[in-house]
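re: the backbone from monday

yeah here it is again, tokenized this time
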């Protein structure tokens, strides 16, 4: 008679046990409120009225200089960028169509809320969609939702777009800008609204902080790198380095002086010299010399920014009175965030070091590149490596859930690299040290450009018959002789 209840008890006890014993913990993924964020996985919001978005060509009529500065910027190219389009196709194939909204929310925001972009490719799209991060994306930003996001940080487009409002006689366009408007502002085409947000990094944060579409772990963290560094404390914002000429940027970085109103320009110039170069090729192919010159200017500006970002110090290390090692200290002197930043698992910044004796014979070399653009395996590189759910190496943003290493250089910080070089006394050694940068590994670039949708024809648009060896820029180049 006693066996039955005993068995029930035993079963109940086993069931209770089986919950913790069954192993794997449930993932801690912050939920997304789909009513609040209707375009999830993009976290953009749209205050919908009958006021429409305006294409940049219309703004150009009254703001020609801003238009020229923005033209060929990374923002203007953000959607047409063939490297982006290649990765977008891969994302859709791997995860399904919904992920496209995440990408496009930052690469062509207005087109996402209007439901215009259906997948990778450019055929049949409006000038507004093609214009990527256009005038009216930024100047319709009314507010942000940075602290309400699933990660409680800026991420994946956490901004509110509001291109206008209902007026008594139909829609009224409202443009958010930094300055106190006077009565003439907008000349009847738009109203002007003073927006202090536009002079701070929080405006840029919505898009310059990319998180995984599902787990919300940070993948590109330019904003938080800035926010946790010295420039945020000194009140130097993204605009103060990226929306000004090179000399003004250097002043912002060195003396922490915010630029005057008239010093700002719509360049949004960073490090991507490769894309400016492609834009120049496209303009030449289309026979537009002015546009090619515009792109070339931006190419030179990005090279100058890269070449102003870092410094290298070389010093010998002696042990027991003998030269034992060479120390190379790489300092991030002028990037407001880590160096490099954002796609730190794709961008490549590395040291190439050679040591020669007095007769020129090679004693040591590291970080060289062969004719196919392949880097030697002994390379000292300042990047990060992503890993997937199972902690295996991963490179695509929908796979990376964490990083196995971060080796980028914080703002105003440095990293030391040591090269073993044991030499007897009395043998002078000449060292050549270069800090080199390119957008991606040759194979990664070939893979992405190989995936571009069919309507982006690399030969017809850029005149590229094959994928060239990616250009490399020397950010710093130094030769020293140690009279060992
Ligand atoms: C939160 C905004 C945001 C989201 C979401 C986003 N990106 Fe980006 N993406 C950026 C920014 C900002 C850069 C520029 C970083 C840089 O140049 O260092 C960028 C750069 C890129 C690049 C490099 C382009 C080049 O020319 O080197 C590729 C490729 C890319 N994104 C693909 C994607 C794909 C695919 C998705 C969706 C899975 C995506 N992005 C989602 C903001 C975003
Ligand atoms: C990535 C965001 C972004 C984009 C894209 C953008 N702007 Fe701006 N704009 C800003 C910021 C930030 C400021 C404040 C700094 C400044 O004064 O330039 C500003 C300022 C302005 C101002 C007022 C400043 C002045 O000197 O009169 C005008 C007008 C303007 N932008 C027009 C445009 C036009 C036209 C375009 C497209 C061709 C455009 N913007 C694209 C962010 C943007
Ligand atoms: C009919 C002419 C006209 C057109 C078209 C026009 N603007 Fe303006 N806008 C003005 C004038 C005039 C001002 C006054 C300040 C100035 O001259 O820069 C102004 C000021 C601004 C400001 C500064 C507002 C502030 O408070 O700081 C922004 C931002 C701006 N415009 C964005 C745009 C954008 C974006 C477009 C396209 C969607 C656009 N404008 C189209 C005439 C125009
Ligand atoms: C609506 C989203 C969005 C906003 C807002 C935005 N950006 Fe961007 N930005 C992008 C995307 C997307 C790219 C990269 C395009 C690509 O690589 O194809 C980019 C590229 C850049 C680059 C070029 C990076 C390089 O590798 O050369 C700079 C610099 C930059 N942004 C600065 C800013 C600044 C400063 C602000 C704020 C005033 C800002 N951005 C606001 C989306 C945005
Ligand atoms: C003190 C000046 C300074 C400030 C402030 C600053 N940057 Fe930069 N930024 C640079 C320099 C210099 C480079 C080129 C070196 C590099 O790639 O990091 C750069 C590069 C970049 C790149 C391209 C990175 C790559 O290697 O592809 C992006 C994107 C960018 N910045 C965005 C931002 C954003 C967003 C902010 C604000 C949160 C910001 N920057 C603040 C100086 C600055």
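seq for it, each position gets an aa:
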């Amino acid at each position: 008679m006693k066996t039955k209840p005993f068995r029930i008890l035993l079963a109940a006890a086993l069931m209770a046990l089986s919950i913790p014993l069954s192993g794997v913990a449930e993932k801690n993924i912050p939920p997304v409120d789909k009513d609040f964020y209707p375009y999830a996985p993009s976290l953009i919001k749209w205050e919908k009225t009958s006021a429409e978005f305006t294409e940049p060509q219309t703004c150009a009529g009254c703001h020609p200089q801003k238009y020229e500065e923005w033209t060929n910027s990374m923002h203007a190219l953000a959607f047409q960028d063939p490297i982006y389009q290649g990765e977008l196709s891969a994302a859709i194939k791997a995860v399904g169509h919904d992920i496209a909204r995440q990408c496009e929310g930052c690469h062509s925001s207005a087109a996402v809320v209007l439901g215009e972009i259906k997948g990778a490719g450019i055929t049949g799209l409006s000038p507004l969609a093609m214009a990527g991060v256009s005038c009216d994306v930024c100047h319709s930003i009314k507010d942000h939702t940075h602290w309400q996001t699933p990660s409680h940080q800026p991420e994946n487009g956490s901004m509110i777009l509001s291109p206008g409002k209902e007026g008594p006689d139909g829609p009224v366009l409202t443009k958010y800008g930094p300055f106190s408007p006077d009565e003439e502002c907008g000349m009847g085409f738009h109203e002007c609204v003073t927006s202090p947000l536009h002079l701070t990094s929080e405006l840029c944060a919505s898009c310059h902080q990319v998180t995984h579409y599902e787990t919300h772990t940070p993948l590109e963290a330019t904003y938080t790198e800035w926010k946790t560094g010295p420039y945020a404390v000194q009140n130097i914002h993204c605009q103060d380095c990226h929306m000004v000429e090179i000399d003004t940027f250097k002043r912002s970085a060195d003396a922490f002086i915010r630029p005057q109103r008239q010093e700002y320009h719509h360049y949004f110039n960073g490090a991507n010299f490769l894309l400016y170069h492609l834009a120049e090729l496209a303009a030449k192919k289309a026979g537009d010399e002015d546009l090619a010159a515009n792109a070339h200017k931006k190419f030179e500006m990005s090279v100058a920014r890269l070449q102003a970002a870092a410094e290298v110090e070389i010093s010998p290390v002696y042990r027991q009175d003998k030269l034992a090692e060479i120390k190379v200290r790489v300092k991030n002197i002028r990037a407001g965030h880590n160096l490099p930043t954002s796609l730190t698992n794709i961008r490549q910044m590395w040291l190439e070091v050679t040591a020669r004796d007095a007769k020129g014979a090679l004693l040591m070399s590291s970080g060289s590149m062969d004719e196919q653009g392949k880097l030697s395996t002994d390379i000292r590189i300042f990047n990060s490596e992503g890993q997937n759910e199972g902690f295996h190496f991963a490179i695509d943003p929908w796979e990376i859930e964490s990083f196995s290493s971060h080796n980028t250089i914080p703002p105003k910080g440095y990293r030391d690299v040591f090269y073993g070089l044991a030499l007897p006394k009395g043998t002078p050694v000449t060292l050549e040290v270069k800090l080199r940068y390119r957008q991606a590994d040759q194979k990664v670039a070939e893979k992405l450009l190989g995936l571009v949708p069919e309507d982006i024809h690399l030969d017809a648009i850029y005149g590229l018959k094959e994928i060239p060896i990616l250009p490399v820029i020397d950010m710093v180049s130094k030769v020293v002789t140690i009279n060992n």
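The chain is about 30% helix and 25% strand. The radius of gyration is 26 Å.
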